[in-house]
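cron nightly-structures :: item 1 of 1
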Amino acid sequence: MPAGDVERVHAGPPSLLRPVVDSSSWWSLALGAARVALVPFARLRVSGDVPVPLRGGPLILAANHISPIDPAVLMAACRARGVAPRFLADAAVFRLRSVGWLVRRTGHVPVARGTATVTDALGDAAAAVEAGAVVLVYPEGRIGLDPGFWPEKGKTGTARLALLSGAVVIPVAQWGTHELVPYSAPKGAVRGLLRAMRHRPTVHVRFGAPLRVTGTAREATEQIMAAITATLAPLRAAEPDRPNHVDPTRPLSTSRTRPR
């Protein structure tokens, strides 16, 4: 379904305003730290907005995925818009010594990919959304491998989460994160960041118009991916076909390419 056919949901009247809800003081601090830590490596440009009535949840943020550093960039962008989302993250992240304690303490949802319990994440995420949380999801389920860096065909998990919870979805598009670290990170990450420090590429994050998905899980998935693609297009108007920056470590695949 074209992005223009998606039902749009508008912010309510001022009487419905609610305060922003942080997952915890630790997570709020981490969001601010991400914004500061990004400064030496990139010029962050955040556009679009999250309507104030939606900032405290329930809400689903659905983002494209083009680089291993995307979570840190989205943390910084969400901080700029007063949103403290819970991430659906690979279960391996919860076991890392460096950040595992933080994601375990701050209400993020582990996704045990390749296991029999992978579907548990959907129920956990739905419970979090229904309890009033903001949840950030990558509908593609991986760093996209489309040759043109456009969003791939999405998996149905995000759409099922939206249909199950009834929550509004905001598409989030990012562009430029692929210039900071290579696809192969952590291998090559230090070299990539040193290069970024010299050039400080501009990284864009745009929050699109809120939408409420309808229909089957596959139809709703197409609505979400169309909205993300429409939100991304203005960010890469100068690079409509392929990005100017070439990452030799990134494989290319057309197996999940969507028509645009």
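cron nightly-structures :: done
The chain is about 30% helix and 15% strand.
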